[in-house]
Amino acid sequence: MLSLEVSLHSRTQILEGLGFNLTQISEFDSHQGFQNLLHTLYLPGNRLEICVGNVLFLSPEQLLLLRILKDSATFSLWEKPFIPSLTAPHNFYVDEDTTVKVPMMPQDTQHHWYLHDRYLPCLVLWTDCQGNTTTLFILPNQGKMEQVEEVLTPKMPTRWSNWLRKSHFYGKLKLYLPKFSISGAYRLDQILPKLGITDPFLQRADLSGIT
């Protein structure tokens, strides 16, 4: 959205920072691709809901200082649902010294795909959701959280998914999960420069197409 209204140099910088090779794909095609992606995400469905929003915030102190906030949320139904009426407070162990009471969702004994990683000290659980989506839960062994976090990469879910296709990882499991939500904030002025996108945060930024 930002690249639509900035100067040519800044527009090129943004698109190349997002991984587009402008010698192989035109600027029009890149924007058309985003349009098609958003259209696909918004297709109606009663099993999976994905909402994506774009908001512009202008700083009152610096007229051309632009901040983009993208907020996305995903809602889906479990393929093997939990029992809402049996949700009750149970102990949740934050660390060796901290225990808190949280709403814990139980599930009748069901067959699940799960494994104990032979190389990492953790258990991995694959749960299916309706709408052709999947959730992977990673439970480090006691005291091994940092060790697992240090080697966790985007390739790990693919590795686990390939392992979990083997039938001997499919077994009965009585599952309890805490009710939780995840949110976060990002400093784009610290993240985007690492991708080579610096113009929007400089005094010379030409954002006149927006302001």
Automatic annotation (TrEMBL):
Entry keyword annotation includes Transcription: no
Gene Ontology MF annotations: serine-type endopeptidase inhibitor activity
Domain Serpin: 2-211
A GO CC term assigned to this protein in UniProt: extracellular space
Keywords: Glycoprotein, Signal
Pfam families named among the record's database cross-references: Serpin (PF00079)
Matches recorded under InterPro entries: Serpin_dom (IPR023796), Serpin_fam (IPR000215), Serpin_sf (IPR036186), Serpin_sf_1 (IPR042178), Serpin_sf_2 (IPR042185)
Domain of life: Eukaryota
Signal sequence interval, chain numbering: none
Similarity-based family: Belongs to the serpin family.
PANTHER family linked: KALLISTATIN, SERINE PROTEASE INHIBITOR, SERPIN
Protein name, per record: Serpin domain-containing protein
Organism expressing this protein natively: Bos mutus (wild yak)
